[in-house]
Amino acid sequence: MYTFRRNRVSLKYIFIVIAICVIGFGCAKKPPSEEIAIKIDDYTLTAGEFNELFSELKISEDTPKTRKIFVENLINRKLLLQEAQREGLDKEKDFLKAIENFWEQSLLTIIVDKKVKEVSGDITVSEQEIQDSYNNWVKANPDEQKPFDEVRDVIRFQLLRQKQASALNSWIETLRKNANVKVNKKAVGIE
Predict the structure, then answer these.
(1) 125-167: per-residue pLDDT in tens?
(2) What pTM was computed for the model?
(3) Which of 75, 114, 167, 185 could covalently link to 119 via disulfide, CB atoms 3.0 to 4.6 Å apart?
(4) Which range marks the domain in which residue 143 is found?
């Protein structure tokens, strides 16, 4: 009986310690980045998310005043968005078409930028090409002559862009050749 009572007391203390730990850790403050910074109806923004949004603005002065202005603008923006959703504007055909256009344009920009970066590593512009381009420009524009050293970098940049565009167009032509493209000229009004 003595052993049972002693074990019971030990178990009681163990349960109390476990309960304190669970309650203590369960009620512990959230890390600062997880704290709710702004709540607008069902929308919540943690401190970490807020700081990420704020830092994306690249504001030169991070002061309480600039943060307050940002918070006020953010609240107004979210309230307007919530109202637009309540009115069902996010389901209208024009809105959905605008989203589709934005998505397509963003995707096109990303793929073109990616391809330009890929081909740019292989593209070079020689000094001879720059000099030849300058000489052709001087012949075509005798009244607008500028010293070679003043326009060298501009010419190099233009030649580089031309070569990038040519490489990109070649890539697009390859895509066209490898795709099954059919155009009903009558249906699109070109016949």
Answers:
(1) 999 999 999 999 888 888 888 888 999 999 999 999 999 999 9
(2) 0.56
(3) 167
(4) 123-191
